[in-house]
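[step 3/7] fold_predict: job queued, chain A
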Amino acid sequence: MKFKLKALALAAVASASTLTFAEETASEHSFSGNIGVLSSYVLRGNTLGLENSGATINGGLDYNHASGFYAGWWGSTLEYADLPNAFENDFYAGYNGSINDDLGYTLGLTYYYYYDVETSDLNGFETMLGLTYKDFGVTAQTLLEDTGWGNAGDTYIKGTYSYALPHDFSLDTALGLYYYSDSGDFEGEAFTTTEDFGFRHFDIGVSKAIADTGVTASMNYIIGGKLRDDTSLKNKVVLGLSYSF
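[step 4/7] structure written:
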């Protein structure tokens, strides 16, 4: 349930007689959450190495302060062949600011932690820089350390655009690009890098809020690009159902 914390301000005015009054002010703190199910978990357009080939459950909790500071957690079930109980945890914090009414920015840091995974090689920090202009957005996420899924310096660039359609439908698009570092502790073992920069994926989908229930249904079509070793990715449809509170 999304809720607001309310503060009570008291003021006194001295004149011929004393008047005391209370004024309710807007909250500086807000909390929200979400839970959903996807037909499969596709990480950054990688349709060949699915995080979960079957239905996956995910959810998150978020805190926002009026100053622009935010923090939160997001998690998802995984389905690795030898790790049936693995779970991804994303812990993040940062700052959202605005330049004017149309232009905004984000500075953030994320820590990826994989539960019930025998090795800690998958865990790592990543920075996030973002800009928004009206319904457009672009983010750049840069890995800060070598992990089993990337080298320090790898940068995922994502552009998004959403357009409101009639009857509470929304057109949602995303373009994913990748800059790859070719040097790291796991290079040549967990993966091989032959490309410096490439097109990763393009998504186009529709979503619809179901009345005032907090539930949103979505269908997303992923057009696959290529991986860091120039392997071509397949196209894929992902269906989703989420509830926000």
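[step 5/7] annotate
The chain has one domain: 31-244.
The first strand starts at residue 3 and ends at 4.
exit 0
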